[in-house]
Amino acid sequence: MAVKIFFSLCMSAVVYFFIVAGKSSPAEWIYAGFLMVLFVQMIRTGDFSKYRRIFQFTFAFLFAISFIGILYDERGSMAIAEDSIQNSEIPFCHITIPLTMLPYFITKTVIFPARIIGHFASVISMLLIWFIVTITIGRGWCSWVCFYGGWEDGVSRLSKKTRFRLLSYNKDIRAFQFAFLFFIILVSFAFLSSVYCEWFCPFKIVTEFSQITDIPGLIATVMFIGLFLGLVIVMPFLTRKRFQCVSFCPFGAFQSFADRLSSFRISIDTDKCSGCMKCASSCPFCAIDKDTITGKKGRPEITCAKCGECIAVCPEKAISYQFSFVRKGCSGPEAESKTGEIIQMFLEPGTLFLFSAFTFSVIISSKFGPDALMRIFSIFTGGL
Amino acid sequence: MKNKKSGYYVHAVFIFLTAVFGISSFFIFSDIIGRSLQSVIKLKTDPSFTGGRIAAVFYDPVGDDHGYGGLSYPVSKNFPAGALDLVRYTVHEPVYNAQWSKLSDYWQIDLEFTGSLRYGRNIRIYIDADGNSQGALQTKTEFAEGVEFDASFPWDYVLSIQNNEGTLQSADGLLIVQLNVVQTDHYKKLAVRIPLENHLLQTLYSIDVTRHYVCVGGWSPAGRDGFLDVSESAFTPKLFDILVPDGKTQEQVLSAWNEDTFEVPVLYPVAVIMKASLEKSQLNSAEESDELQKKLELAAAKKSGEILKNSTEAYEAAVRESPQDMEKIAVAAFNAEKYDEAEKLFDQLLMKNPDSANASAYKGSLIALRSSKASPLRAVDMVAESYRYLDRSISLADDPAELITAFLNRGNVSKAVPDIVFGKALQGAGDFLAAGNEFKKLAASGTDDRKNYLNSAASAYCNAAICFEIAGKKEEAGTWFREADRMTADLDFEETSEVRLMVLRYFKKVDR
What we know:
The complex is a heterodimer of chains A (384) and B (512).
Chain A: H1 2-20, H2 26-45, H3 48-75, E1 79-80, H4 82-86, H5 97-107, H6 123-136, H7 140-144, H8 149-156, H9 170-191, H10 195-200, E2 209-210, H11 215-239, H12 243-247, H13 250-258, E3 264-268, H14 278-282, H15 290-294, H16 309-313, E4 319-323, H17 338-346, H18 349-365, H19 368-380
Parallel strand pairs in A: 1-2
Antiparallel strand pairs in A: 3-4
Chain B: H1 2-28, H2 30-41, H3 47-50, E1 54-59, E2 86-92, E3 106-113, E4 121-128, E5 148-149, E6 157-162, E7 165-170, E8 176-178, E9 180-184, E10 189-195, E11 209-218, E12 241-242, H4 250-254, E13 266-267, E14 270-273, H5 286-321, H6 326-335, H7 339-352, H8 357-371, H9 376-396, H10 400-416, H11 419-422, H12 425-444, H13 450-470, H14 474-488, H15 497-511
Parallel strand pairs in B: 5-13
Antiparallel strand pairs in B: 1-2, 2-3, 3-10, 4-6, 4-11, 6-7, 7-8, 9-10, 11-12, 11-14
Helix pairs in contact in B: 5-6, 5-15, 6-7, 7-8, 8-9, 8-10, 9-10, 10-12, 10-13, 12-13, 13-14, 13-15, 14-15
């Protein structure tokens, strides 16, 4: 109980500092309250996945409202204006990170028209965010921080049952994602341009897109609308998986590699596991195969985003968060005294992961959540 | 076994500390971390997005939009102050195969003005691209601007830019190409892209030097070639601002007309080395600049020591001689760095008169100063509170002295607080520029303190430039550092050491 209170108090300090402090509108307080309720529920019930889904869908929705609202305030349209490119004012998105790395080593420049520094969505701030996320929660970014992933999380829950089972295709889907990452890196390198953003990104529909002034522009528009409908709406609805995240997103694939540097992982206790495969069915990132269980690998596959769905459904409580430095099949040392037990409660990997991941959720959403709420309020009070 | 156990706990405690304190602290200090990182890795956006690599930048003095020196500014409200005041002219290297752009092959030229104007500028840029004697020496339309060109460098192409439209025309009139003109930054900047798809223009890719005559006039649908009439002599050039090469002044060049001999002024071009890729070095040798920096640091330290000493004496004198004048004592205490005492006095002043602009301004600064010693959680609240006072002081200020105090206080706070958390650097730049303009007005009013006011204006411009740098706007920073440099060039070395030091540091950074 003391541990739960301690972490709740710490989280309330984070929420206060990043959302409420120095501001006075009710939107900030409402959003702060919403986040605190989610966190307290997660830590109280131990059911991270359900409240995480609520957060991520809400964040994705509010992010889109806020982002589009800001675009309309600044340029009166969602279309990317020529002057925004010339002034390098296109927000730098995390998906662009792997695409700009190889060209950087050749050109010594960033092949994306974004501000380098001095802005929340500048290249340097996004790189710093990526770095700190990577060394703490790793690919947990996709399930706790990504402002796009919530769309799929939301849509995948609209259907009560899985209409199209992907379990037997997991390996192929993962292979496709990595192949696509390498393809897009090579193409970006060849054209010295972030080709994914120009041609493939389905989330342009909820952020910004190029003006349609010629045939290639029209083709790009048809492509991103089609990809959004197919990968973010239809497939998640049919499969109850984060289909775009697991098959197409280059950042997700890249972060799977970078996850090696993170502090946490998911551990499967092979002695307790009864092989019911509920975890594999529920995993939205196609990260648990039959082989993972039958081969007693003790951990999910490389695409695991630490969302906690498998932990929530496991009837044997065989799955848990673990520190990355603890070797597979091992666990932390037994406490030998009362003090040791208390210390271990504070150092419990699941709680520390939750706290780390939700801290990112709070900080990354701190600007967009209240801003979107203000915009929604203003619609009801007579103006946008 | 014991080692393994202690290893586990060391790792776990480290992760605990990272989770509970590390992540939040990282974000709180990300501005500082980011700037430190950028100073090492020096990331740049690919120049093809922003116009291509910069071949040359020319800085024109601020406030010289008076043509030959006596031209009256258009009185129409369509021409706000500074709208025709060219301050920066940037020529890029030609770009090919650009991404994310309507034009994949282009050559870009940027113009920046001090004031905003959406419709009303009429700009001609005459370019000598081949360096030979072929081309034209008269303006595109005879008697339009009222000038001629240096006989050594006849122009080959002219860019005619009116508002947000433009054309390129060759001197023989055979080639006409539409330009892509984008107005940005509230219509203060124009980015002019010349499409290079036409094979006749592709020679520009291989040219080493181009020479540019840049002419800025007002636009009028009734004027000859759209140039707003200046209704003085028929020979008065209808140009409010031009770019002149080093060693010449705009006034000197444009005043050279003679009605009796039918002479019109001759313009001289600025030369652009098309593959320079970097700004020209502003400094002499590294040794000389290091020596100068040491001298300036000494002079600035001496001066700031003197200022503090004088302020302390002024404070003691104010307490002794005018104990009733609470505001005077409070300001003196603030200047003498007796912040606790100053805050008490300003609190009392605000109790008596909540509408005191000066008290609000200083109170805001004092809260911000205190916030630097508070915990991050408290500091954010305190900075927000400080802005309530600072914003109020600007809305209450009703004379130049109060306005200057209000702008400088808010500017200083905006410069000091992390931009990534509060996003105030651009506002700070605006405040310093406003304060600098007020100082300049005072300097122009013919007082004995002219030099002091000019120094203060230059100092405000330097601070504005620093704010622009913080906000990532390097070009604007360059404009205002150079303006400060120009303003202090004829002033006393010791007195202006602080400004000179800021400028020198900037030039050294640019040179690196």
